[in-house]
Structures are given as C-alpha cells and as structure tokens.
Amino acid sequence: MKPKQFLYLFLPFLLLGACAVTSKRSTPITQGNPTEFETLDLSEKGPIRFQKILAADWVAERNGLIHLKDPKAVAANLEPGKEPIQIYFYVIDHPKFGRYIIDTGMSSGFRKPQEEWPVPGFISSRMNGDKLKTKITIQEWLAKDPKKVEGAFLTHMHMDHIFGSLDLPAGTPLITGPGESADSRFIHLFVQSATDRILGENISLSELKFDTKDGKTTRILDYFGDKSFYVIYVPGHTAGSLAFLIKSTNGSQLVLGDTCHTKWGWENQVPPGEYTKDREANIESLNYLKQISLKFPKIQVHPGHQSIGDK
Ligand SMILES: [Zn+2]
C-alpha cells in the first residue's frame, strides 16, 4: 500500500485517536430484574451447576495486571516482570434455562502451530504467544460434556476473553455490557481486525441494558429473574465490563473478570495497571465487588486470570 493510501485509510482513526474494539455492531437487549445491593440474599444455595474450566496457561506483564505505583504495591516491592496467569471460562448449567458460559476460553485454532493461530503474527508475538499453552478448547470441552450453549456472557471483549468464540456454534449469542463493542481506545486501531477475526463471521452480539433512574444507574441485574444469576455492571477496565454472582449448588461464586486480574490485586484491593482503560472507574468497580464479598464472606471469588486457593 502506498503511504498516501495508508494515510487515507487510517485518517479517521488518527483524527479520533482511537477506534472501536470491533467493527461488529451489537443489538441492545433488555433482560433481568434490576436488583439493589441491599436486597441480595445468598443465605441459601442456588440451583446452578457452576464449573470453572482452565483453558490455558500463559504469562503477562505485571505492570499491566497490577497498578505497581499503588502505595500497597510499592510497599510490597512488586516489580515489573512476567507474571504467570491462566485463561478460564465458566460454565453455568441452570436446570430451567439451560447452559450458558462466561468468557470463551480457547478455540481449536490455537491447537495449530503459532503462525496459523487466528491472530496476526505481530500480535501473537507481542502477547507472549510462545508462553500461551492451551489446556482445553471449547470444542474439546463440549465434546466431553455436550449440551447446547444458549449464550456466552463476556466479562469484556479483550482478545483473551474471546479467543474461543470460533468454537461456538454459529449464531450463539455473545452478551456484553453497555458500550463494550464500541469501546474505543487508540490500541484498538491495531487489534480491531484481529478481534473481528477471532469473533468470526457468524456471531450475534447483544449488549445488556442497565437503565438509569433518577440519576442512578442499575448495577445488578437478576438475569433469569429467579435470584440465581446476577450480572453486575463494573465499568472501568473497559467501558462495558461485567462481573457475575452465581448462586450455585456449591455455594455462591463471584466472577470478577479483569476488574481484578490477580490474586494479589484482589487480596490487597489494588486495581490493574496498564491493561485498564479508566483506572478511577476501575477502582470504584473493584471496591463495589469487594463490598459484596465482605457482605458474604463465604463467597468464592474468581479473579480474571488467577485463582484463590484451589478453586
Ligand atoms: Zn484478560
């Protein structure tokens, strides 16, 4: 491509200084009952069979995962470097509403040699691709435990949370938080086409609505309306980040997404570092999730990329 053509092609993005995470557009959906924090009741076990699946082992930069300038990180002498992390997806089997997953793990494409992965080479080398070790793909997992996936909730649309999308049957709804697919950041100029490719041709993107009433935005939706599965709006890491509170047969589970990537970040209440878009909003959302865990101390917490205990 000639430099002039290149300039014309990218001029709109250069002017805006950013572009959306994906060029695919989502349909707003209204689902679930708005719920107040004060009315949450987790005293009884719920009907959902909850499974956390380790999809891949990986490493990432500590200064992306944890805000190293936070006084608590400074006091703990945390230094920049590589941090071992994992990629997970979660399976929600509801006796009445069927199977949903949260995030999409890995797709079969990642079983191929790295040069054939469904991400461009310059991205896989930048993201420590040589350290990304797939444990199980969505296709392999569904072959072992077959059941229709009614939909996949995305904690957010960063690539490591949608890597498995191509393994889902065509048309499986992907459900995001408000403004997530249009979330703009300069970096997206480089990753938009990769994100589109990972999502595949046949996706259906839905965006959950969280209404604002009297200047107050709903934070929690009782998704099925039976108080078993709550979707929590936690903007900050990305515009439409979501967390999930699940009343399972094994007790209550809190899936944080990348509002907090690491065990250390959760235990010390320190937000992510450079991987987060809006740190102030991320801190507010992290504090909100912490409040839930303090109200229900028995809750099992699942940070975005590490585990607490052996759960
Ligand atoms: Zn992530």
Automatic annotation (TrEMBL):
GO molecular function: hydrolase activity; metal ion binding
Annotated family: Belongs to the metallo-beta-lactamase superfamily.
InterPro entries: MBL_superfamily_lactonases, Metallo-B-lactamas, RibonucZ/Hydroxyglut_hydro
Domain Metallo-beta-lactamase: 86-305
Stored SMART domains: Lactamase_B (SM00849)
Alphabetic keyword roster: Hydrolase, Metal-binding, Signal, Zinc
Protein name: MBL fold metallo-hydrolase
Keyword Metal-binding: yes
Signal peptide: 1-20
Species lineage: Bacteria, Pseudomonadati, Spirochaetota, Spirochaetia, Leptospirales
Organism in which the protein naturally occurs: Leptospira sarikeiensis
Cofactors, names only: Zn(2+)
